[in-house]
Amino acid sequence: MTDDFIATLPGMASAAADEAARAGRLSVAELLDHLQHALVVIDAQGHIIGYNASVLTLLELPEDLMARGPLIDEVVRWQAARGDLKGDPERLLRRVWHHLRATQTSGQPHVYSYTTASGRTLQGSTIALPGGGWVRIYTDVSKHAQALAALRDSEARFRSLTELSADWYWEWDTEGRYTRLEGRVVRERDIAPLFIGRRPWDVPAPNRPRPEDWRPLLDAVERREPFRHFEVQRVLPDGRTYWFALSGEPVFDAHGTFVGYRGIGRDVTARKQAEATIERLAYYDGLTGLCNRRSFQDRVVQAQASSARSGQWAALCFIDLDNFKDINDAFGHAAGDGLLREMAQRLRESVRAEDMVGRLGGDEFVVLLEDLREDEEQAAWRAQHVAEKLRQALERPAVIDGHDLQATPSIGITLFRGQTDTVEDILGRADLAMYHSKAAGRNAVRFFDPAMQARVVQRATLQRELRHGLRDGELLLFGQPIVDVRAQVCGHEALLRWRHPVRGMVPPAEFIPVAEQTGLILPIGQWVLREACRVLARWAADPARAGWTLAVNLSARQLRQPDFVDSVRQALHAAGADPRRLKLELTESLLLHDVEDTIAKMEALAGLGIQFALDDFGTGYSSLSYLKRLPLTQLKIDRSFVRDLLTDPNDAAIVCTILQLAQSLEMEVVAEGVETAEQFEVLRAMGCRLFQGYHFGRPAPLEPAQPLGETPTGFGVTIIGAAPPA
Ligand SMILES: Nc1nc2c(ncn2[C@@H]2O[C@@H]3COP(=O)(O)O[C@H]4[C@@H](O)[C@H](n5cnc6c(=O)[nH]c(N)nc65)O[C@@H]4COP(=O)(O)O[C@H]3[C@H]2O)c(=O)[nH]1
């Protein structure tokens, strides 16, 4: 190879060889032999007139062939015979010459590649020389070719994966918008149009309706962390709902700049459905869809823990259908199943959403009631109330498969609080109580605890009798005088009495709480108001009593009635009573509920001239801030403070403070429960101006015992002891 020619090919030698050449230690020919590229020089006729050492190693051509200065045709034929070049040698040669000439006319190098029989991939480049002839440079690109092939393989494998599996591939940009979605599922379900250009959290997902439902994913993305199996429910264009699980990882470019996310999506709908089925089978009764024994027991354990925390009683009702076996035998299993489903449905509808209904098997149902009350008796009362509702719901006839069926229930109840008993204990007690119901004649509700049962029955009886009592005129209005500093009657407090046909006079403390719980207090309260207004109207006609006031006790439920103001107005109007003579007594606890509504109602009534007294003052939660906002005219000092006034300096101090407070708020004070002349005296000395108590008169009927005007101190009022002059 001539040095002249080499001079036209600068930059082909390695840097080390170049350096050596410059230092004159290597001839250019030697230098070329150091080249990793193979170099062949061809003259204008096609003879090989030069080559370097790499030709022998890279093209694997024998030296004796090359040293002869063969025609290019000869070399090509030799290569074809060895298997380096595929195809007919004559055609190959025509192509070789075509390209050689083409480089000469175009002046552009011709680049091509081929793989030798030994598997080496060479890239050849033919350059036309200015004076005719060519130089051919060969580079070993085997590694590059292998990398390309591997890439093609990998790409093909990736395609197979996304084509054959339920997974698909996705990419997001830096904002989390889908830029690429690939895979069979994507195509078949037509997913791409729904997502491309949108962020996952911008596309509706039924299981993640609120932005905070996406927090776990967004947190990972904000921290540029990978995420796995993020499950999203999607409604696709085919109208069906699918479950997808997304896994992804952040992508960074060569400079470490975040460029987005990529990952896979997976259709996990089938798995979700299977899970739901498994859960249904594991925790729910297949026939009715109610909880099965296992999940019910779990819930009882939870209820025990929560009752221990809250202090509220819970109840377990055990329900057994009395004649289910007969129905099953007579009408067949299908009808029996239908009946059980119907009963399950009725049970569900009869309780609150948070109450748990279960089926233990056969015709045995259970209902768990939580947060009943802190007081055991009240809790029992509520449980009894619900159980009675369940009994009534179940005993109604049902039409199943055209048959009129009726299955009455026997219900057993047990109360529990805390974690001392096992679930089996609790279930066992309720079961036993259920047998008591059966023994008592079926279609009944019974408590496990006989004493509790007795109290509940007593209460239920009381409630029933009270309803009848109201209807049959057994309620009476008594009055207790309220006197001034001269012990002169200036008004009364109306006190309710129930003249029971068997038990005689029943005090209000016994029946008012039951009336409150059952709602009977509303018609009773209404009756009291009407009676009180009638009494006021009668007093108005008697000059000796025309100035008296009559105070009526109000219950919280009455005040919560939206039409309460109207009902008072109507009672006054119907009787023709003067509203200024009517006082309404409220207790402090009553004021705690919905203060704004209470104030609005009180102000409306005060506008009519009605006065308000706060009963049992000192025992409740009065806060001065709301006392000032209420249109109150009177505070009644609770009798517990009056009782020990003479002996307990604390009580004396409390009474003094209440009197001062009332003075500053410009309110009257009534001292309740004054039983002795001494108490009266001390209270007067303290500045109290109004008094009520046995010392001045016990509650007595508000009916005129004598013709009007004959008793200056009021009806049925006995003044006990001498009233000192003011
Ligand atoms: N130891 C003692 N007691 C005295 C003395 N003076 C009066 N009492 C009693 O104290 C109670 C005063 O009524 P209250 O604090 O409003 O307490 C009343 C009131 O909260 C309620 N109540 C009575 N009638 C009605 C009504 O018509 N509606 C409503 N919602 N509650 C009523 O029942 C509660 C009890 O009423 P009663 O049994 O009539 O009991 C009355 C009365 O008999 C005394 O000197 N010593």
Automatic annotation (TrEMBL):
In terms of InterPro entries, this protein maps to: Biofilm_reg_signaling (IPR052155), EAL_dom (IPR001633), EAL_sf (IPR035919), GGDEF_dom (IPR000160), Nucleotide_cyclase (IPR029787), PAC (IPR001610), PAS (IPR000014), PAS-assoc_C (IPR000700)
| Any one GO BP annotation for this protein | cellular response to nitric oxide
Pfam families, per database record: EAL, GGDEF, PAS_7, PAS_9
Q: Quote the SMART domains the UniProt record gives.
A: EAL, GGDEF, PAC
**Which catalytic reaction applies to this protein?**
3',3'-c-di-GMP + H2O = 5'-phosphoguanylyl(3'->5')guanosine + H(+)
Residue stretches making up the GGDEF domain: 312-450
According to the UniProt entry, its GO molecular function terms are: cyclic-guanylate-specific phosphodiesterase activity
Q: Which residues cross the membrane?
A: none
Domain EAL: residue ranges: 459-713
- Chain ranges of the PAC domain: 228-280
By its UniProt entry, which NCBIfam families does this protein fall under?
GGDEF, sensory_box
Under what name is this protein listed? Putative signaling protein
